Structures are given as C-alpha cells and as structure tokens.
Amino acid sequence: MTTTDPGAPGTTADLEAEASALDAADPLRHHRDAFVGAESSLVYFDGNSLGRPPRASVDRLAAFARDEWGGRLIRGWDESWMKLPFEIGDTIGRAVIGAAPGQTVVGDSTTVLLYKLVRAAFDAQHAADPARVDIIVDRDNFPTDRYLVDGIARERGGRVRWIDVDLAAGVTSDALRAAVGPTTAVVLLSHVAYRSGYLADAAAFTEIIHEAGALAVWDLCHSAGSVPVHADAWGFDLAVGCTYKYLNGGPGSPAFAYVAARHQDALAQPIQGWMGTADVFAMGPEYRPADGMRRFLSGTPPIVGMLAMQDTLALIEEAGIDAIRAKSVALTDFAVRVSDALLGPLGVSVASPRDAAARGGHVTLSHPAMRAVTARLWTEDVIPDYRDPEGLRIGLSPLSTSFAETLAGLRAVRDAVAELD
Description:
The chain is α/β, with parallel strands linked by helices. The protein contains 13 helices and 13 strands. It has helices spanning 12-25, 55-72, 75-79, 84-97, 110-128, 143-156, 173-179, 202-211, 303-307, 309-319, 321-343, 370-379, 403-420, and strands at residues 43-44, 104-106, 134-138, 159-163, 184-190, 215-219, 238-241, 256-259, 349-350, 362-366, 382-383, 385-387, 391-395. Helix 1 (12-25) runs antiparallel to helix 13 (403-420) and helix 12 packs across helix 13 (403-420). The longest helix has 23 residues, at 321-343. It is globular and about 70 Å long.
C-alpha cells in the first residue's frame, strides 16, 4: 500500500524493514525479556492502562507469601512493612518524578489520594482567603478528576470553573491564564491527557497557577514512568499518580502522592485515620497528625499491592527515565508514521498531537468503526482500548513494547477497519 506522504514508508516491506532496524538499534530492547508474555504473539497496546507483569514480580509475590507473610506473620509490620510506603515512595520520587526524599508516599487509590490532596489544598486556600472558592479543571480531564472536584466543591461551598479544550489536544497556556484569578483556590490538571495523549507544559502551567496565587495539583497517571517529571524543579505543590500503568504494579495497585515539603505541615488531609497519626500505636482519644508524609496516610497500607512495582522501579532506575522517554518518542513516532501509511487511506485519523514534544506515551486513532474494531481485535489477541468519541488508543510501554509488535498490531487494526467499516 502506498502513501501520499513522501517522507513515510511506502510499502509493508518498508515498514517491516524499518521496524527490524529500529528494534536492532534500540538500547532498551533487552528489557522486553523481563516481562511475562512478551515472548508471545499477543500484541499489547494497553500498557497505559495496565502494564505487563515483570517476571521478577512473580517470584517476589510468591516469596513474600511464603517467607514474609507466611513466615514472619504479624512481625513483618515491625520488621519492614511499616516503612514500605515511604521507602517505595522515595524510590518513585528519585526514579520517576524528580522529588527529593520525604515528599512521596504510596497509599490509597488514585481517587482517594486526589480527594485528599485537592480537598486539603482547597481548605487551606479558602481559610487563608475566603474569596478563593474556585477549583479549576478541564472538561476533558479523566472522569474521576472531574467527578471528585464537583463533589468537593459542593461539600465545601466552593465552585467549579471549567476549561473547554480541543479533544485532540488539551489545556493551553492561554486558556489556563484566562481561567485563573483572585478567586482561584486550586487547579487540577493532568500532565498527559488520558484521551489524546497531549503532554502539558507542567513547569509553565504551574508558574501560571502560582502567579494567580493558587495551588496546583497534578495528575501524573499517564506520565509517571513514561515521561520525565521534575516535581521539585517545576515547583509542584501536590501530585498523584497511579502505579499499574507504566510502573507495572498490577491490577488495582495503590497510587502515590507527592506533597512538596513546604506544604506538608500546613495541610490537613480530610480522611483522619490511625496510620496518619503522630504515634500510630498510642491509640489516643484525639487525632494528632504526624509530621511529614505520614499525615497523608489514613488506614493500613496495602502491602501486597506495593510489591510488584518495585521491580519496574528498579528497571527504570537502571535504564534512566530520559532513555525511556526517548524510546517512547520513537515508538509513538513510528506508530504515527505507520498509521498514516496503512490506516490513513481507510479514513483513520491521528487524534493525538503529531509533535512528539506535545505528546505523551500513547496515540489515539479516530474512526467511526473503532468500537467494533477494538472488540474484534481483542478476540484476535491484539489488545488496544477504546475511548469515546470513536477513538482506539494505543499505549506503548517503552520497556516492554517492540517496534515489530507495534507494526503487527497496526496491521491488524488496518485489516479490522477494512472489514468492519
């Protein structure tokens, strides 16, 4: 099949040769062998929803059940488990989000941690200046983000101010600047848009938010482990990210929270539980929050859910997040070129930024048949996901995805579109 773009590959043979050359030159190619199932013919395009499990995690989970849980039993809490949320949090800070120690903790789900931080930020801002009643969020943010902001505003007497966005892009600096002002308390934004893959300029956006006197809460779910983040250098106030996407923590693995050191003692998180107290085992009559990141915990940490992500974090530290980002850019650039060549003639459009500097780790392809195409592909062991409107989303996890796998999957997409359209 030919294409009208002279810079794109012209035939399937050209694409196969390019994929082979890119895989041969890929400095991270050996990491693919570290993941369960990577040796199979299944094409996995959903690493931005649930990452493949590392082989080392299978052994880690079995050993934990046998030796620590089974062998040490409740003694494990004193010996290591109580420290695990903070130790893994610091590793995430160091390897993934550019945060100094003592500012990141692994705890609850993304939804619960976002609720805690947005609510705490709103309460602090409103207490300092009662005129600050607005929580700003864009209309294309992930549903959880939009739903909880609406709930917090109603709960606390605040107000949601919405930013309208292009669904194939995301929030712009001009739109953000127009939305913030003296009544803004908190702004909640996603670093990478879940639908389009648009990559926000987090440093510039944080500066705009601070100029308005507001606090920024960043959702890092679609960037952590795929896109470099520099939370301290960019002046982040607060951030939350999940661990089951590019960090391969497993289904429902707990999220992480970042709170800049300058805010920790001033923020009162709203879900007061025993694990966030100054003396966890005092069991006193009053809640006294701990210093530092412990105050942002609530209940007993989900230890089993924290185990698997440690193996991917070790891989990220070994490879380096900049090298991972370079592989991600190469994969998504290749996916766009292949889509133009194979899918463009069928009426499929790329609904993600074409400029790699404005794109995260996934690419969305748009066509009216994509819901049916996705369902068909799943039966053929090609696993993308579907997002309205008419979007087939390709999540390319850099450590576990090859260029040959990407090409094979997109050829299957082509065949399905051709038959179902």
